[in-house]
Amino acid sequence: MDTDDRTWRVGELAQATGLSVRTLHHYDEIGLLAPSGRTASGHRQYDAADVRRLHRVLALRAFGLPLAEVAQLLDGDVSDVRELIRTQLEVVEEQVAAATKVQRKLVGVLTGLDQAEQPSAQTLIELIEVMTAMTRALTRQEFEELAESRKTAAAQLTPEELAAMTEHRRKAAADLTPEQLEELSSARAALMPEE
């Protein structure tokens, strides 16, 4: 079947795209992505045009735009998908460069682990922080779970480890340029829940 002729129920679209049903419901509730139809039993049904709009929503979100601005842009007619994909490609290339930095950090951590019997909690916290820098925006539940796991990990640190970690972060922040601090702030903002 030609995918331009088929429709997807909300669960099918969520599974096919890797999004959550909750996210698709939220997009519908705020008028960002209303399904084109409903089944006889009232279930949301998306068509190819809806999938194209969803791609635009996610591409614009990947640029760090809040949902309200995404809606304004889409309602202003982002009709040339090629330009959107070109811009998305630029963002992906930047993410590849960032991923390469993360890869180097992971190799360094792995080398350190090869030389030690057990990694310190501080090392693991730093690794978790690096890993989360490469992820998508978090759901409210994921954000709360991450915050809780960080609290749990921090509570297991000795006062000396906690002080060393705090000093390490202070020194790392002091070494950053204003542009790098802004990039870091933007990256963290992109991880914040949408709600």
TrEMBL record:
Residues 167-195 are annotated as: Disordered. The keyword Cell cycle does not apply. SMART domains: HTH_MERR. Pfam families: MerR_1. Keywords: DNA-binding. Residues 7-76 form the HTH merR-type domain. InterPro entries: DNA-bd_dom_put_sf, MerR-type_HTH_dom, MerR_fam. It comes from the Bacteria. PANTHER family: HTH-TYPE TRANSCRIPTIONAL ACTIVATOR MTA, REDOX-CYCLING DRUG-SENSING TRANSCRIPTIONAL ACTIVATOR SOXR. This is MerR family transcriptional regulator.
